[in-house]
Amino acid sequence: MILELEVRDTGIGIRHEKLDSIFDSFVQGDGSTSRKFGGSGLGLAISKRLAEKMGGGFEVESSLSAGSVFRLLVPFAVSHHITPEMLDSVKNRVPPSAEGEGLRVLLAEDNSINALFMMTLLKKTGHRAVCVENGEEALKALENGEFDLVLMDIQMPVMNGEEAFKAIRERENLSSVPVIALTAYAMQSEHQRFIDIGFDGYISKPVQVDKLIAEIDRVMKR
Fold it and tell me: Could you tell me where the beta strands, DSSP code E, fall in 1-76?
């Protein structure tokens, strides 16, 4: 069975001569929008490679002022359903807070799919989570509420994760809040760079459940 998924948008479109290159790393159809809307030119490259590793493919149709159609095709097979017991086994591996109510977590993540996954996981593992879309909103949330932990995406529009982290550490009332970096930069040198900057922890994307649970556990026990 082949699973075909189409995503259509009504944006500015992509020039015909750019269609062959937008799947290359760090390439965008229009690089001038990256600061305003975010993005690093890695999303399509990663998606195409993942599709190919699953034995499928990734296609695009687009023209200027007419929007774009992105099409994912992958072999599909029915897998085992997730059972309540499986969810319980994950939940039991997350240490509750002293009050037994989990942690109060602030998630800063601009990608709606990533945010939905992370929020679902955090809630399933007993934590209370609030999600914001950029670093500026994260600062406002921290000023207006109490949180035990921040999960901070690095690549975000308006104010990115590094900028927000520096602003958090400069504010005396927020300087002790643990902050874990969430980023697609998977190289060990980048991992060390975020730790050297002062982040309390680091999780690479795509987020793996076991590693997220373990990193939260490690950071909160420091």
Answer: 2-9, 57-62, 68-75
